[in-house]
């Protein structure tokens, strides 16, 4: 006997229309109510008719949107999501949104009739646009914390704590954060965590930027760093950090003797830079696999498992950090 939405509603103590919103537009309902409905649906073995219809009309295509396909950070995510989706019978459509909020929003609107679902990696959408997208398409997000959307976050906090401890032990007292793109939730979060952790260690935080998260932007970032009085910096990502290293070398600034540099993400090539880059590392392959798996579950008719899965990080110490030079 087929379980109905009415039965789920009765079990959860809500209206049948609330059950529909909870299963198909989770961002539009109170979290406690939604969780109660999901529990009732699982207990009864309920599958919504809209989900069944989606399964029957499956296109076999899932889009992965990234801000910059040339950034090595996304290489492992692209590979791991593709492998996970292929195993489940889906083809991956890779789209570069060019670090643009508007391009990402326009692309999502165009994809509604083309794909079964979407994975957003480091989305540049604001909260309103993200909620609207969730109401229109099944999706998961990578590197964005959200309690009402299935999400996976590479949690820099432990790695950042280790980085600040490391720099303090080397004698650094003034540390700068090289800020990334202003429209990035992740950049705002990383900058906030940086300032809190530096102040907690009774050190002085400085912020320079924002900058686009590319190697070429590291030129301006390095020039700005040299007038701050900072003896060390933590960059939003490794590309910015590598750009900083290259510019400092051009200007005759010795790393790490005159300036210590820490990156974030441990991209391919971080250990080949000159000098090899100290960086905060997390398992990006795992992030991709988890995001794809959670989307596949939704596309297979399971209730969305909203909330954020955290991927831990750690500090990899290489040759771009060292003791403060005596003056």
Automatic annotation (TrEMBL):
Residues in HTH lacI-type domain copies: 3-58
InterPro entries attached to this UniProt entry: HTH_LacI, LacI/GalR-like_sensor, Lambda_DNA-bd_dom_sf, Peripla_BP_I
Ordered alphabetically, the record's keywords are: DNA-binding, Transcription, Transcription regulation
Instruction: Give this protein's Gene Ontology molecular function annotations.
Output: DNA-binding transcription factor activity; transcription cis-regulatory region binding
A Pfam family per the record:
Peripla_BP_3
Q: Which PROSITE patterns match?
A: HTH_LACI_2
The record lists the membrane-crossing segments as: none
Report the protein name in the record: LacI family transcriptional regulator
Q: What is the originating organism of this protein?
A: Microbacterium sp. LWS13-1.2
């Amino acid at each position: 006997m087929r379980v109905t939405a009415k039965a789920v509603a009765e079990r959860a103590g809500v209206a049948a229309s609330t059950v529909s919103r909870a299963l198909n537009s989770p961002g539009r309902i109170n979290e406690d109510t939604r969780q109660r409905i999901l529990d009732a649906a699982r207990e009864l073995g309920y599958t919504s008719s809209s989900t069944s219809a989606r399964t029957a009309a499956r296109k076999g295509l899932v889009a992965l949107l990234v801000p910059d396909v040339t950034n090595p950070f996304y290489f492992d995510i692209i590979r791991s999501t593709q492998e996970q989706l292929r195993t489940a019978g889906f083809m991956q459509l890779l789209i570069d949104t060019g670090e643009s909020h508007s391009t990402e929003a326009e692309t999502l609107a165009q994809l509604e009739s083309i794909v079964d679902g979407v994975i957003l990696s480091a989305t540049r959408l604001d909260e309103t646009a993200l909620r609207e997208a969730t109401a229109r398409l099944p999706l998961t997000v990578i590197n964005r914390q959200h309690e009402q959307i299935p999400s996976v976050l590479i949690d820099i906090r432990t790695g950042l704590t280790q980085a600040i401890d490391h720099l303090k032990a080397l004698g650094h007292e003034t540390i700068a954060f090289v800020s990334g793109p202003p429209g990035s939730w992740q950049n705002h979060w990383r900058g906030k965590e940086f300032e809190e952790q530096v102040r907690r260690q009774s050190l002085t935080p400085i912020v320079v930027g924002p900058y686009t998260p590319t190697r070429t932007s590291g030129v301006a970032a390095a020039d700005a760093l040299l007038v701050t009085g900072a003896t060390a910096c933590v960059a939003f990502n490794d590309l910015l950090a590598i750009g900083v290293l290259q510019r400092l070398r051009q200007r005759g600034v010795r790393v790490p003797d005159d300036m210590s540099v820490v990156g974030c993400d441990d991209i391919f090539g971080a250990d080949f830079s000159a000098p090899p880059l100290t960086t905060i590392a997390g398992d990006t392959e795992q992030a991709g696999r988890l995001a794809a798996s959670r989307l596949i579950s939704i596309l297979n008719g399971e209730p969305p498992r909203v909330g954020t899965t955290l991927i831990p990080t750690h500090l990899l110490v290489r040759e771009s950090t060292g003791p403060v030079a005596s003056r």
